[in-house]
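Long-time lurker. I teach an intro course on protein structure, and each term I like to show students one example going from raw sequence to a predicted 3D structure in token notation. This year I'd like something fresh instead of my usual example. Would anyone be willing to generate the tokens for the chain below so I can use it in lecture? Attribution to the forum is fine with me.
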Amino acid sequence: MAGVAIAAAAAAVALVLVGPFGHGPARLDVASAAYEAFAPKGNGIWHVVVVETGSGTTGHGTGMNGGQIRDETWSTTDAPHVLRWIRFEKGPGQLPQTSEQVWSRCGWLYYAADANVLSVSGPQKASASPVGPPPDPAASYREAYKSGLVVYRGTTTFRGVPAYELVVKYRHKSYTETTTFIVRQSNYYPLRTSAAIEWSGGHGTDVLTYPTYEFLPRTTANERLLRLAPHRNELVVPSLRSKPLNEPTCAKYAKPRLRP
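-- Reply from a regular --
Happy to contribute to a lecture. Here you go:
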């Protein structure tokens, strides 16, 4: 994924500052405002839809191999922590694949649409899952900001939406990456993130667009968005030696499907 490369660049704390933070209208520090906008806001739910595309000579993620990924996530910012993640993926010469997952302290649910199979694991297995959630663009940006790597490049528009442009540059030996964040002027949430990467083995671009990026209050109605969707005639396969927690909170997220 492109986020892996972005995160690697963002985490380079020891790099030299590549330029001063710029100021927008009324001397607003855009880089700082984006940092604050990406910060957690109490006990709520981040709802994000991100589409990854791109091209490249080799490696560095599905987008760079000419494929496409659409991720939709609902993630809580406070306890009890829950993550729901729906992924649609299509690579070159491959059939489309759709999956849905829910992580909580009660366990891990993984649904594969092509097989109509739901795999169920208790909390003992969830931490050892071979599949991790998609990268968090907000966390990557915050790390880049704290490292002093963000440069403000002025105002722009994206699909008719007024926006600011912020750039992060990273270089290590033969590896070079320039990542551009396009964020809304209204709330500084991301609209588009693009990475241009060059390394000794080739080059590529990876683009993340965000049709939806919003912070929802953690109401009873929105809690339903954290639950795995029902699937007709699904085959439920429990993980061996993995038992669910028998707690009231598990009933909302996992307990109905975690029965032996």
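Some talking points for your students: The mean pLDDT is 77. The longest strand covers residues 202-217.
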